[in-house]
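user: can you give me the structure for this one chain? tokens are fine.
assistant: on it. calling the predictor now.
[tool input]
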Amino acid sequence: MEHLPTPHEDEIVDAELLPPDHPGPRTDEDVAEDPRPGRSARIVAAAKGVLGSVVRQAGTGCRHAHQLTRHFATAAGVSDEELRRLLVKKQLTRHTALREEADERTAEVRKQLQRLDRRAAADGWTKSDQEQAKELRAELAGRERAQTGLATRPFTPIQPTGDQITSARNRTGWKRAAGLLACTCGALYGAVQAPAVFLLALPVSAAALWWLGRSEPVLTERPVPEALLLPELDAPALEQVPAPAQEPAAQEPTSEPETNTAVPGTDPFPIARATTGEEVTDCLRRALLAEGVKVEEVHSPERTPWGWQATATLRSGTSATVVKALRDLDTLLKVGEGRTLAQGDPNASADVRIRVLMSDPFAAMPEAVHHAPHSLSILHPADLGLSIDGEMTEVILAGQHVIIVAVTGGGKSAMVRVLADHITACDDAVIVDIDPTGRGLGPMRDAAVLRAYDDDSIAEALEALVAEAERRIADLPPHIDNWIPTPQAPSIHAAVDEYPQLTRRAKQLVLKLLRIGRKARVTVILCTQDATADIMGDAVADSFGIRVLMPCREADVPVVLGDRTAIGKGWLPHVLIPSPGDHDPADAGTFYLLAPRHRAPIMRKTRHITPADAVRRTAERVNAGMTTLVLDGVGTEEPAELTRDVRQLLEDVIDVIDKSPEDRIHLDQLAIDLAAYEPVRYRGWTRDDIGDALRSAGVRTTTVRVAGTGRKGVYRQDVADRAGTP
């Protein structure tokens, strides 16, 4: 029979194999008296220990959460430096907002003015439009000055005090505390409304608290955010207290003579005190340094009949730096406004030619040369005047479109008169007179082969010119690129004045002529007071081979020259002063020129032809026989013979105008004056009756201005020309 072991037989071992202190094998009595718990009891005990550890760590997490919440709510983690930068950033934001607001307001006024100009250019100017444009231009000028002041004013913050930083910290804390309270209230409200969601959130919250209890939170100030590390927000550098000056050690006298190392003076002085070249260069150097221009030296002084000129070599910067300082240089040098000029050197970017005008550079301007009829060719250069250096300004007009930009009183009429004088002296060129205001070439209008002063005749003339240009291009032989002017097929030059006042159709014809006329030798001499793209449309910059800038607006300069940096290079027609009236010519007739032979920004002055001299020259050429032109029948009809009654009307109108202070009269006033002059003959005549009678007689009626009021009227010269009387 197999032996079965006793319950504790497996524990019976050889006593000799046990260590001396071993208690020996366990007996049944020992098992009965063993106090240790069983396996289930041990599991329960272990679970209680783990739960207690989790609860204790969660409790620690609660304490840490309280510390973090308090640290956040009191803004203790935000450093004083960060708060200081935040306060300064608010000042920077306000400073930037002011500049942006000024830019937006200026742009809005500019858009309003542009919209008004476009509408008026298409529909004609009314008195209300002119008044509104005047107000807008004045407002725009003020806003541009304010905009420039804000742009040049640096950001200079006011550093906050300690109390202000403390107040900022308190405000931040209150905001954070209010945010935490709102979140807590929201959580409680959600627990009441959705208990199931709240119960699900409890384990997540317990886990989060347990995680927070693992280690002590770091309650320190955070570093300043990178977004606040702007140079504008930096604290001002502390002023260094200068160390007490030490007396220099006594030096042994030497037998060598001392060298004069004194630094030259830096205080500017009037240039009128300078009598030598060295004094002039020193005067200019001081003035430039005083305006912050980094000039290396001023050299090559030259005395001129009108003042001084010298070259400044810059250590850094460009000619634009000097141009920006010209107004202040006028003050430092004690010369007139706009009398200091600067011109960059395209071959040496560091050199700037400076001219200081102490007297009128064109005081000894010679008169325009008298040319006999048919003595010139349009292929010969035309003399427009003299430069400030005394050189003739010659341009070839054949095949060149011309634009003349000048404000009222700038001298457009003088420039056009010089051009017309040259053209009408050529036997292979003619001029066409186009002016919606009715004045046209004035004393030289009789030399024009065609005249158009109202909307219908202007459109008719321009259509004929476009057709002539197209015909010439079609007739060009294959071996000839451009039309060759002859007395039988002359070069045609259309003098178009007041371009913005043309009708939309007329402007389209002018633009077409600008595109195709050069090859056909049918070109445009275009005059305008405003050359912005909104007014001129496509007729800007590269359309014109000859660009004349007289006293004009600053905005016109880069547009006409096609170079946004033109002013910085020395193109300064906008600083010229237009004539305010007949008794003060100011800078009228002074101009800058961009043409094939003239690319430098040099001041020039056109030659002056008086109205009386212009009348004499015109009469001489008309009597000698002008070059004729036939444009599909336009302008070739002979005027009808005057009847006795019509001639009497014209003579009476001339007598009435001669009794008035102006050389023109409104039709409504003419009706009143004629009725008073000849009551029997003109009793009951209205302004419309007189206008119809004059137009039937071949006298043009147009809008004229008398005493500042523009209404339909007539010029004495037009009536006298038709009547054949002086």
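assistant: here you go. The first helix runs from residue 28 to 33. The first strand starts at residue 295 and ends at 304.
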